[in-house]
Amino acid sequence: MYSIVADLCKGNKGYLPAQPFLVLDRSPSINAYAVGSNVIAVNLGLIQFAQTKEELVLTLAHELSHNILLHAENSMKKRAEWLTSNEYKQSMDEVLDSKYERLTRLKKVFENFSFDRSRHQRYHEGDADSLAIVLLKNANIAFDPNVFLRLDTADMLYHQPLKQPVKNYFTAYGITIEDAWLKKRSKGLSTRNYNFQENVTMQDSLKTHPDCVDRYNKTKVAATTPVPQTPIPAAIREKANKMLIWNMYCNMNLAPCLYRVLLAKDKGTNDPWYDFMIHNIMLELFHADNELHRFAAIGVTQKEYISKDFYELQTSWSRCPAKNWVKAVSKCRAPVSGAKCRSRNRASER
């Protein structure tokens, strides 16, 4: 990562006179962001998602462009100006003077500002794309606009179906999942029918950037031909994936965490670390059930983001008796000697 940034700086001393400060964010979101003051952050999700160096360097160049164009600083300045303006003071006075619906009025004040800011941020993305291409050209780094088309599927990770029925994955751990637990019921996570086949794209309203197809069409004329592809080492992507899974586990997002484990198993991994994580997840889920916050531990995900298999997983977890998880803990012993985790600590406390 630092070598990529160094290459960009070497070819763009006018734009990047000082080495940017790079922060690694453990978020699973496939994204990176500019903080301002020559600081950018890269999410683990992006490192795990990117297949080539060219994909990763484009994202870094895009975020560095935001800093060069002072987008973060201007956004913060605009917010500060708004909070100290007469318009804001008048709006707050009107909220305080009203006798009814104060919360609704207060929400509208901030919603109007957020909408205006988001709209202008989308305009900034095109400027950052253009400058990013300039940075890449100056550094003699290839630009492949197809990365924008790949980014259009970035929010679709949990749309990936599993290779086996959900219940088959638990057989090895002594857990029996009944078919009735996988289906919609009159009460629970959902009470209406939902056709997962219809939802194959992410709505633009759920994205923070302009449509990826538009970004591709506007920048394809600047593509490098042919585009060299420098694969990111598999070991780096695997390490990023494990860090993501562990962080999601620590943050109690257990259903997405387990789904990532199952997707890794679908790829044929025999790494015992993934069994170790199933052990931890099941024990954590059992503990959460005893503490009466099972649903919070499951980390229910919106249907717009998930496949039928993911829906069945979280639905079964909402109905599966906790004693089944105890079986999983007893059969799936953690193979990593000396490893410490919250689950084991809690088990010893009990």
Radius of gyration: 24 Å
| Total individual domains | 2
**Reading side by side through the largest sheet, how are the strands ordered?**
1-3-2
The shape, in one word, is globular
Low-confidence stretches: 202-208, 334-350
Give the helix/strand class.
mainly alpha
What does this structure look like?
By secondary structure, the chain is mainly alpha-helical. It folds into 2 domains: 2-143, 2-Layer Sandwich (Zincin-like), CATH 3.30.2010.10; 157-202 and 232-349, no CATH class. Helices cover 55% and strands 4% of the residues. It has 15 helices and 3 strands. The chain has a 3-stranded mixed β-sheet. Strand 2 and strand 3 form a beta hairpin. The longest helix has 37 residues, at 102-138. The protein starts with a helix and ends with a helix. Mean pLDDT is 81; it is low at 202-208 and 334-350.
Question: What secondary-structure arrangement, pairings included, does this model have?
Answer:
Blueprint: H1 2-11, E1 21-25, E2 32-36, E3 39-43, H2 44-49, H3 53-68, H4 71-83, H5 86-97, H6 102-138, H7 146-151, H8 212-219, H9 234-250, H10 254-266, H11 272-290, H12 294-298, H13 308-319, H14 322-331, H15 342-349
Parallel strand pairs: 1-3
Antiparallel strand pairs: 2-3
Helix pairs in contact: 3-6, 5-6, 9-10, 10-11, 11-14, 11-15
Summary tags:
single chain, 3 strands, about 350 residues, three-stranded mixed beta sheet, mainly alpha, 15 helices, Zincin-like
